[in-house]
Amino acid sequence: MGVLWPLEPATAAKHRLYQRYLDAWWPILLQTSQRTRYSRPRVTLLDAFAGPGRYEGGEPGSPVFILDRLLHHTAVDRMNLSPHRVHLVFIEKDRARHEHLLAELTDRFGKLADLPVRVEVRRGDAGRDSLPVLTELGAWGNPILGIFDSWGSVNVPLEVTRRIARNRSSEVITTFGPNWFSRREELNADIFDEVFGGREHWEPAADEARPDERWRAWLGTYRSALRRAGFSYQLQFRLVPRTGQPLYLVFGTGSDAGLKAMKEAMWKVDDRDGESFQDPRTRGAKPDGQLDIFQVSDACDPELIELVTQRLALGRATVETVGQWLLTETARWMPTHALKAVRQMRQDGSVAVQSPGKLTSKSWVSLPGVA
Predict the structure, then answer these.
(1) I want to staple 208 with a disulfide (CB 3.0 to 4.6 A). Which of 30, 145, 217, 352 is the partner?
(2) Which of 50, 64, 76 is nearest to 108 (CA)?
(3) What angle do CA 89, 91, 97 make, to 5 degrees?
(4) pLDDT value at residue 226
(5) pLDDT for 64-94, tens place per residue?
(6) Rounded distance between C-alpha atoms, residue 363 and residue 268, angstroms
(7) Is-contact 181 81, C-beta < 8 A?
(8) What is the pLDDT of residue 150?
(9) Which residue ranges of the chain lie beneath pLDDT 50?
(10) Residue 122, beta-bridge partner list
(11) From the CB of residue 234, how many other CB atoms can be counted at a distance below 10 Å?
(12) CB proximity list for 186: less than 8 A, separation 6 or greater
């Protein structure tokens, strides 16, 4: 691969997801009330696989649109931007791409030292250099968003994500390209030991013999790694474009607000390329595409029905409990979707409502024959 390469459809959809999420993330952290102890936190965004800043067709890379959308955010006047408060760190390993990125940012935004935020463009390795750079910039103790977005193998040690997970109000986004789920004989066991925290954690996924199940096994394995690292919530999903190869993403956060913001961003991503976000737990359902979260539709997405069925197979629950499970355990569904799903399932005769009267969030429901 040269310095620049074509923008894949799945990557374009992923970029729209990032943009939507960051549009919500910046105000959450930078408009904190001045009456609180942490009224002026230092916020750091780390893009550890930054790339050259542009694609062959001229489309902006993640460092460019991240900086551009921050500087032109609708709430920028209330964010109190300053080089002390806001740090953007872009790490790129390849020399030519690093140089191209630096030139791209300078051409677009002028002298980086004159910007109202601190921009660091470093040449280095994501796994080796992320922690030292964050330490150098004094990032610890304040919110960090780490984006580990590599098209190839993500050779980022678990110690890196663990340190971020245990830092206040911090999150990570990790993506995997289609070639990441390699055959067993092609794996570097020592590197995978570092990424997952030990061979016993990843060998079951490597031994998965069914090719169509391998990606699901690896994705669940990495999600478990983020849980062990210390993230309370871990979203995992497969982004499937209309054309081209899929992309896999795992999001780790300890924040209820971050969890909801990511899901809302996912629902607001349009499907101009015909993409859909799929939950790895589902095997038969095919999502209808990303609809606006407030859009009214008579029929539920088959994926939602399948997931609610999976939850109720574990035992009876209130609609409210099902909704919380959808929020914390599924890729894209929100608590508000639970009532609609149960209502349709009751009409179809696939769920029993054990509470008398009108179906509400407090109603107890179960699958027929499941206690």
Answers:
(1) 217
(2) 64
(3) 130
(4) 96
(5) 999 999 999 999 999 999 999 999 999 999 9
(6) 30
(7) no
(8) 83
(9) 33-38, 285, 287-296
(10) 91
(11) 21
(12) none
Specify whether the CB–CB gap between 285 and 299 falls below 8 A: no
User: Which CA distances in Å does 339 have to 256, 284, 328, 362?
Assistant: 20, 22, 16, 10
CB neighbour burial string for 12-45, b if at least 16 within 10 angstroms, e if fewer:
bbbbbbbbbbbbbbbbebbebeeeeeeeebbbbb
pLDDT at 166: 97
CATH architecture of 302-366: Orthogonal Bundle (1.10)
Task: Tell me which fold the domain 9-278 belongs to.
Answer: Rossmann fold (3.40.50)
Partner residues linked to 148 by β-bridges: 174
Task: Tell how strand 118-123 and strand 317-318 pair up.
Answer: unpaired
The rounded radius of gyration (Å) of the Cα atoms in the chain is 21
Domain boundaries, the chain: 9-278, 302-366
Residues shown for the chain? 371
CA distance 242 to 357: 44
pLDDT score, position 243? 84
What is the predicted pLDDT for the residue at 71? 98
Residues 6+ apart with CB under 8 A from 144: 43, 44, 45, 46, 134, 164, 167, 170, 171
- Residue type, position 91, single letter: I
Return all residues near 368 (Cβ < 8 A) that are at least 6 apart: 350, 351, 352
